[in-house]
Amino acid sequence: MTDPITFDDFLKVDIRVGKVIRAEPFPEARKPAIKMWIDFGPEIGEKKSSAQVTVHYTPETLIGQQVMGVVNFPARQIGPFMSECLILGLPDENGDIVLLAPGLEVPVGGRMH
């Protein structure tokens, strides 16, 4: 377990639901990854991200999926690609990432409460 944080600290992390509108392989990445363009709704807009999720997903299966992402981190250069948000996931029993998503379809841009 990590050190406790305050509720105000938690509120600083802006976690939103978005829909993957484009995805493609990222062969230049050091570890196998997929580049994604995610629509976070009219308030946030489109952001791009790179994720090491090639065990459970292909670019084709990601398009149209809802995902959860942190949208208020600064952009980060990953090789030749600028990642603008952090898509959230959990490791399976083998350590491979499974993306977090709402259990039901919800409007894009919704903030996690």
Polypeptide structure, described:
- This protein has helices at residues 7-12, 41-44, 59-62; strands spanning 15-25, 34-39, 46-51, 66-70, 76-78, 81-83, 86-87, 89-91, 97-99.
- It is mainly beta and 113 residues long.
- It has a single domain, classed as Beta Barrel (OB fold (Dihydrolipoamide Acetyltransferase, E2P)).
- The strands form 3 sheets. A 5-stranded antiparallel sheet has the order 3-2-1-4-7. The protein has a two-stranded antiparallel sheet with strand order 5-6.
- A hairpin with an 8-residue loop joins strand 1 (15-25) and strand 2 (34-39).
- The two termini are 21 Å apart.
Keywords:
113 residues, mainly beta, OB fold (Dihydrolipoamide Acetyltransferase, E2P), 5-stranded antiparallel β-sheet, two-stranded antiparallel sheet, globular
